[in-house]
Amino acid sequence: MIFSEALKKKFSEAKSVCVLTSAGISAESGVPTFRGGGKNPNVWKGMPFDQISSARMVRENLKEVWNWFDYRRDFLKKCQPNPAHLALVKWERKFENFTLITQNVDELHTRAGSENVIEIHGNINRSRCVKCNKRFQMKAEDVPHKPEKCDDCQGEVRPDTVLFGEMLPTGTYEKAFERSSDCDLFFVIGTSALVYPAAMLPETAKREDAYVVEINPEITTMSSICDESLQGQAGKILPLLYH
Ligand code: NAD
Ligand code: ZN
Predict the structure, then answer these.
(1) On the CB side of 67, how many CA atoms lie within 13 Å of its CA?
(2) Does residue 220's CB lie within 6 angstroms of at least one atom of ligand 1?
(3) Catalytic member of 85, 109, 121, 145
(4) Ligand 1 pocket, 123 CB below 6 A?
(5) If you take atom 4 of ligand 1, which residue's CA is the nearest one?
(6) Which ligand has the minimum distance to the alpha carbon of residue 135?
(7) Which residue from 24, 7, 4, 42 is spatially nearest to 222, judged by alpha carbons?
(8) Of 103, 145, 173, 197, which one is least surrounded by beta carbons within 10 A?
C-alpha cells in the first residue's frame, strides 16, 4: 500500500487524532463481523443477529440472549489482538491528543494495551441488573456468566452492551461526539457504517474540517464523505502507517 503525500503529512503533523473502530478491526483476530468480511455466523439457532441481540429478546427470552452471549464470550477467549489493535497502542503514545472510540464489545483494544478506550456499545464481559442497574464485571473465563441474579435486589442480570433497539448510554456517546468534533485527523476502521448514531461521528469530524480516512476492504456508505478510502485489511494497513 502506497500512502498519499497528503495523508503522510497529516499523519506526521496532526496534534489531535480520533479513531473509530468496529467489527472489521477484529475480523483478522477471527472474531466474526455481523455483516461483511468473511464467514458470517450471523444467525444464532436460526435467528438473525439483530433479533437475538435485541432489547425485545431481553424482555422475551433472556435465557437465550445469555446463551448467545456466553457462546460469543467463550469464542473470544481463543482470539488474540491482531496487528491493527497493536498499531493503535503505538498511536496512543505518539499523538498529543488521541481518542480511540470503539463500537466493539470484545475488549481486544484493552487486551492489546490501549489505555483509554471509549466503548460506546459496552463490553461483553460486563452485565447489569435490569431492576436496579447494578453492574457486574465478569472474568473472561466466567462462562457461563455470573452472577445469574443481582445480589442486591435479586433482579435478572443482562449483558451490559447496547442491543439493537436501545439507546447508547448517556455520557459515553457525548464524549465520543465531542472528541470527534475537535480533531485534525479521523480514521474510521472496519465499520459498515450502517449503525447510527455511531456512523455520525465521522460525518461530524468531516463537517468540522478534520481529514477523514476510511480503512475497509469494501466501499461503504461512509466512503463518499471520506477524504481517502484505503481499501484493504486493517491489520495490513495500520502497521505500515507508523512503525
Ligand atoms: P459489520 O459486521 O456490519 O461490518 C463490518 C465491516 O468491517 C464491513 O464493512 C467489512 O467490510 C469490514 N471489514 C471486514 N474485514 C475487515 C478488515 N480486515 N479490516 C477492516 N475492515 C474489515 O459491523 P459493524 O456495522 O461495524 O457492527 C455492527 C455492530 O455490531 C457494531 O456496533 C458492533 O458493536 C457489533 N459487533 C461487534 C463485534 C465485536 O465486538 N468484535 C463483532 C460483531 C458485531
Ligand atoms: Zn439489582
Answers:
(1) 9
(2) yes
(3) 121
(4) no
(5) 192
(6) 2
(7) 24
(8) 197
Span 110-140, pLDDT tens digits: 999 999 999 999 999 999 999 999 999 999 9
Active site residue 243: no
Half-sphere exposure of 173 toward its Cβ, with a 13 Å CA cutoff?
14
Is the pLDDT confidence value at 46 over 80? Answer: no
> The C-alpha cell of 97 is what?
491528543
Determine the distance separating the centroid of ligand 2 and the alpha carbon of 64, expressed in angstroms. Answer: 20
Say how many C-beta atoms besides its own lie within 10 A of residue 148's C-beta. 11
Task: Sort strands 97-102 and 117-119 into parallel, antiparallel or unpaired.
Answer: parallel
Joined grid coordinates for residue 124: 461483553
- In angstroms, the CA 226 to CA 7 distance is 12
Q: Is 233 in the pocket of ligand 1 (CB under 6 A)?
A: yes
The three-class DSSP label of residue 151 is coil
CA separation for the pair 232, 227 (Å, rounded): 16
Positive or negative, the CA dihedral 46, 48, 54, 56 is negative
Query: Is the pTM here over 0.70, yes or no?
Result: yes
